[in-house]
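Data availability (excerpt). The following record was deposited with the supplementary files.
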Amino acid sequence: MHSTNLLLEEPIRMASILEPSKTSFFPAMTKIVGTLGPKSRSVDTISACLKAGMSVARFDFSWGDAAYHQETLENLKLAIKATKKLCAVMLDTVGPELQVVNKSETPISLEENGTVVLTPHRGQEASSSLLPINFSGLAKAVTPGATIFVGQYLFTGSETTSVWLEVSEVKGDDVVCIIKNTATLAGSLFTLHCSQIHIDLPTLSDEDKDVIRKWGAPNKIDFLSLSYTRHAEDVRQAREFLSKLGDLSQTQIFAKIENVEGLNHFDEILAEADGIILSRGNLGIDLPPEKVFLFQKSALHKCNMAGKPAVVTRVVDSMTDNLRPTRAEATDVANAVLDGSDAILLGAETLRGLYPVETISTVGRICAEAEKVFNQDLYYKRTVKYVGEPMTHLESIASSAVRAAIKVKASVIICFTSSGRAARLIAKYRPSMPVLSVVIPRLKTNQLKWSFTGAFEARQSLIVRGLFPMLADPRHPAESTSATNESVLKVALDHGKASGVIKSHDRVVVCQKVGDSSVVKIIELDD
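Predicted structure:
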């Protein structure tokens, strides 16, 4: 295992732990993805979420129709205008998710040691003895002794609202199970998860494709969260589908690793995807509990070294109903940051939780505290060693910019970029100061009209740790040799000063292209 990133070389004075934290314009370098839903879809609540630190809004199509999500998205746009805070949009697919349908919505009580039948005949009514499911191939996929888990929406791990089943026998298309714990299932839809069993369904279903075509494409989504990614081929097929939908060719695909099948093919999936989401709810069921931490640390390390964003889910489940996280959850958030995650994804906590804004704010504060003790020096050396020599031209410039910023104690790194790649490479080295990514729009044409690129690139950096984008005036090219770059730099510096990141006499490291050359320069600000 790789050594921890916790800064243990400098012992921390116990009394200093209690000192109040300094307020900062950027709540934390680690980003927060919030799932918008019933408790978080009004303009006022979304505005408060953005101010609290949410930078990516997730739309989960496991429930709710396109019209419902469209209404929420329109509210998000109004909130962005009102708060002047940029926010990216993530569409989360349903994928091969197995569901139990409870049309009557009557609570279903299941008693320990009793039996219940899972049937593909959806027309039947759900009861304590019969649960209709949306998959006809379950009987062929499972064998006696297999473990099945049923719970509402997302698994909470609470043994009163979710149930463990053990397959006792298969009768035709039906699966007879022994109930392992007493529970009450409430609501209209429950997720069903078969532990370590291959489900023969496509990763991107026809329903998913329909949603992407009719909702994702018109709304120019920034990220596609590909649920239940099991092979690299899943990502390739999704990318091929997106490439045929105009602007969605720029949409980044985040592979959601949810089971042992995805774990076994992790390296090939990472090579193909733009980022990774560790779906710990389902993984926690598929993996033995004592192995979950090991997979998290290993997966995050691989993502970090590849320079691809890694997102961790299921951190403060208890905040769905409570104003404060448990001690274990607070520590878990900090450890996710120290392990190297770029973003924390909040699901039920903001979707249907009672305290969506407070949850975002609390998670942001924990992340900020963890970042203070992140061993940046060790991390930098490890990353440089992993990359090896000879480095590519861009990698060399990025690592040099971070090293220079650390040596001169710069308050911020400003990076001019048009594709966003240079800024992401700088962020890969996890500098202790914010990276202000100045995205220079590029003019493109299809012979019928002109349009500018850059908005996608700016929003897609909102999921990368330490990266904060701003869109430059398109009249200032990124590779200018004239004074125009200086005027863009002035705008960036003014933005930094206004936000309190840059003060008089601060040093700033600037990374930009001048002609064919990439330049790293250090500037010291006057009064």
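Summary of structural features: The domain at 30-96+201-372 is CATH 3.20.20.60 (TIM Barrel).
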